[in-house]
Amino acid sequence: WLLARVSLVVVLPLKLDRATDLRWSLLLLPAWCALLIEAAGAALVMRARSSGGSAERGVLLRQESALRLLASLGAGVCLALLSLKLEEIIASWLWLFSPLFAALALYFCCCGCLCCAICA
């Protein structure tokens, strides 16, 4: 993860200054690797059986791992859309922000339902 951040910090300014002719998909490869490692780690923890300890702790670990896996997949979708936009394959920035809009709509829908259920 640290290697991915350092490589992006070093290579990204070179690309923005047009000092290198790397493709954006190649430039974002360390971020892809970091996301893949994060998703694989979350999936492994989610599938692991809790050895010892309480059952509640095992359930909490699996739920946290599922949330990390979902966040990693969401970040992967956003990274893929960013890569497509920077390579000028898609024209509109709207596609880049569409996962954020969908997540916000889902969040506000759930909060609205929860507030209605609590107040009723």
Characterization of the model:
- This protein is mainly alpha-helical and 120 residues long.
- It contains 5 helices and no strands.
- The radius of gyration is 19 Å and the shape is flat.
- It starts with a helix and ends with a helix.
- 5% of the residues are buried.
Chart the SSEs and their pairings:
Blueprint: H1 2-16, H2 24-27, H3 29-47, H4 55-86, H5 94-119
Helix pairs in contact: 1-3, 3-4, 4-5
Task: Based on the model shown, name its key terms.
mainly alpha; flat; 80% helix; 120 residues
Concise overview:
It is built from five helices and no strands. With 120 residues, it is mainly alpha-helical.
Find the count of extended strands (DSSP E, 2+ residues): 0
The arrangement of helices and strands along the chain is HHHHH
* Mean pLDDT score: 80
Shape, per Cα inertia axes = flat
Kindly report the oligomeric state of this protein.
Answer: single chain
User: In angstroms, what is the radius of gyration?
Assistant: 19 Å
The biggest beta sheet reads: none
Low-confidence stretches: none
Strand content: under 5%
With helices defined by DSSP (H or I, 4 residues minimum), what is the helix count?
Answer: 5
